[in-house]
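REQUEST ID: PR-0412
SUBMITTED BY: lab tech R.K.
PRIORITY: routine
TASK: structure prediction, single protein chain
INPUT:
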Amino acid sequence: KTASKNELDLLLSQVNPHFLYNTLDTASALALMGENEECAEMIQAVGKFYRVSLSGGRQFVTVHDEIECVKNYVKILNIRYGGTIAVKYSIEDMLLDQKVLKLILQPIVENAIHHGINAKYEKGNICIQVYKDKDCMVFSVTDDGNGISKEKIKDILGGKSGTKRS
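STATUS: complete
OUTPUT:
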């Protein structure tokens, strides 16, 4: 089933505009402090991230492009937060040229970072796997963050989370 225009717009709106504002503020601060190499690295990562995110209006990108988008997203956050996120990628080579809905991984990785790793206030690890299982392509994102209680999961799935974003 293909995504409708409204579904795609909803997906793209998940890339929080505050992410761009905060990233540009960090790049500006790095430039003012004379951290030119780090500033240039961050600006390049932002350009690459949005190049894939926008992808000329296309709804689908290759798995390779999606992984590059995530790598740039993580690079930006590591510059902003002092290298607190380590990511291990395990991608089956035969899937790299397969088409997927763009930004299928970034919101999941964002949640792993913000609700898992950042919640424990120390360095964290994320593992991203893409593999084939029978006729399906499987995307797996795991982290070593604090986790979530069974009660909270029950509340979220039952619509009792208290926020519309949940």
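NOTES: Residues 102 and 120 are 29 Å apart (CA to CA).
REVIEWED BY: pending
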